[in-house]
Fold this sequence. Notes:
Structural class: alpha+beta
Distance between the termini: 47 Å
Strand content: 25-35%
Shape: globular
Oligomer: single chain
Amino acid sequence: MLNVITSKTSSTQLSRSDLVQSILNLNGEPYSLKDYPHMVLPMNINPSEMVLHFSRQCVWEDQELNLSNGKPILTKDLKKGDWINSFDVNTLQTMPAKVADVWSNGIKPVYQVKTRTGREFNVTGNHPIWTAFGWKQTGELIVGDLIGLAKTNHRALTQTKIVEDWQYKIVAYLLAEGGISKGTLSFTTGNKKSADELNKALIEFNPIVKLNKVKTTKYQYYISGAGKGNKHPLKEWLQLIKILGESSTNKHHPEFIWELTKEQIQDYLRIWWDTDGYISIHKNGTYAPGIALISKQLVKGIQELLLKLGIHSTIRQDIPKIYKGTNKIVYILTIEGNESKQIFFNSIRSYKQPTSFYFKSCKSNNLVIDYNFVNKQLHLLSSFIKKPKILIKSKLNKTYNSISNMLSLCDKNELLELRKLIASDIIFDKVKSVKVIGEFETKAIEIEGTHTFQIDNILTSNTSKSVTLAARMVGDAISKGHLKQMYVSPTVDQTKLFSNDRIRPFIETSDFIKKYYLDSRLSQNVFTKEFKNFSKIYLRYALHDADKLRGFSIDKLMFDEVQDLRAGIIDVVEETMSRSHYQNTIYTGTPKRSKGTLANIWHRSTMNEYAIKCGACNHWNILDDKNIGKAGVICSKCGSDKMELERGQWVSSYSLSAQPKVVGFRICALHFAKAPWVIWDRDIIRKMEVRSQQLFFNETLALEYDGGTVPITKAELYAASDSSTRMTGVPTPLDTSYQSVGGIDYGPTNSEVSNTVMVIVQRRPGYYYVPYAKKFLGKEGEFSNIHDEVPKVLAKWKGLFLAADYGMGEASNAEIRKRIGQDKLIAFQHVNSQKERARWNGKLGAFTLNRTESITLIFNALKKGIIRFPSALDMDLFFEDILNIYAEYDEEVGTLRYVNSGPDDFFHALLYAIFASDMHEGQTMLFTSE
């Protein structure tokens, strides 16, 4: 739900927009906001902080989600730090991800979507869902749409056995065929092997607890305890795990079930199929495994456990004759697809399984990819495909097998998107129904890194500014005496451009300003503009260092191109307003990615979007690539060009209950579609055709876009982590059996931009392993502590030597050398202009490394799994350092370069340690083939 934003201006007070339109000229004409009315509100309001730059969505608070281990949880019970299943939109791989934040988003209209496979989710209409054609808002889904569905969550499997086998065996048998009321505990079975297995598990639990045959019946057993008058040990345990006394419809899996290993899950499910499951045979000779229960919680839990094994299943509801007239519904789970059936028969060995079976080719439209999606890919590469007309003209949806056959006709370098899809962790589910079910309390969820998550296994998510800035600054300068404003951009060229092409024309072409506010004694140079009312506009730049901006006393700050500024610089510059009564800050910039200085500010703002109503279907549009028509802006729902840009409304996409202090606006080129200076074909269509998708989304649509800029994804780092190994800081016997090398990258004390990080690296068979890493934060980051701590850590891990940063650390290196020995510290320094990958520099007493080549080598090794880590739970803090590095292509020079949006010290400490280890061994594993 979006909230309309209005501007409150006194009827007797001249607004800023009215003032600047009455006195300023632009390109020889009076400055006017007539053609872009969306700029009136950002021009007029005066919050303490404002960011000019997309939409947050929310979930029904009673929607059931699953933690990454499969445990069900209601959205309202989800909390910061929980791990749920996510997916990477670049690789289409599923993985666990951490919840960064959860907050109330108020009462909103909620859409309920049900799918062919029995999935169901309840979210607001603007919540994005991953489809065969990219993201689509829930409110725009129609019956038949193909939406992304996880076909496996195997990366969430528990690796270390922490649950005893007898625990899950007792639970499985008693939930399936047991009587677990608060009276007598019983069990019913006609299979003696099942009875014997349960009895053995009961004795392992407690020797006094046994399974006893009821003599008067054939299949009935009761479970004896400690005798009459004593507490029953099994009842106490069943109560502890919260399943004692549950009715058949309310039975659920206890929490420890979600911590089972792969082998235990297979065995747990085997018991379910031995008891309540079935394996039916079709007329065509194929077998179909399934299970039917009246507890929805049990069936959904079994579906989650199957998914951890990579087994896809569907759930449907039925009311058999036996339950007619009652409120009981039977939930029927069926294994679907030949691949899933094969995994099932190979891993879940029920006694009901046939001795032989075969898989018939799938010709149904169940597990398919829409033919339009496939044909679009085939059209692009038709010249490479044999018999393209036959393939392209097909109007049938494609099975995964048929696409694999198509790919065999092509060169391995073609049809990359389809190849990625076949190798991915997703399939497509069909939308069965979409409806609004009412207005309910909702929650907003933010996910670290991926910004995506799964709801019932369904995949979901979480510009022309300079003229406006200049007009606003000039308007404030002449309306408020003694006002001091400062404009800050990253580079001197950007500042000169803004001064000469934006500020100066407004001042020099306004007769009003020249007559009443200027004279020859006042400065009007590139970096300072002065006015008769003693107001001043300073124009400055600060890419890496804000020292030149200290000492000013400023009332209002304008930060431009914030995405290229370091957060630490902004903090320093904002101190110039410490004595001002105004203290007003505006941040502007073009979003590049979902992390960085601008993104951090934007995501704590109101994130206002300009909503435009379609005159044909009354659909409210928030403009993006789906609104681009051949000749202008079109409705994303009906395709009509009857878009009333002048009657749009600013709406907040952030929760009002969160009360963000920063006011944010996304302003993109599409908002200026009717401006006289816009030529649609040149400014929109042409750019969309020739620019990369990243550049078009960033520069034209003012939207974040991570694709193509991230050398490695969080999913790939998680894939290189061993969830069964925790980083304790204490070497194990296995650790001490390998030689260790330390690496360290220094950072300033108490810096937000950089930290000192130490890492231990070991060469193991075929890969480098990181058993330990440490960030020196707070008081630990003081160099006196670092000089004491680093030698101790190196000694604990029996490190051969320490590979250290030379750049800012030579003083520290000298101190550490005294403590560990002169020959045990090797220094490295990155350089940009060096042909050799590594070279000894005698003057420095350090090795110099080709920066781009050495960083690329490490990223390639990370992606190939040649570098491995302990559990992601322990490595997450360090992974952020790796993910803070982005690759950019410098078109002027024609080279690749790496930049960082935050601390990257762990990456460089790791790099130094690996290079030092390679030098010691005289060989490297960085070039290991895939």
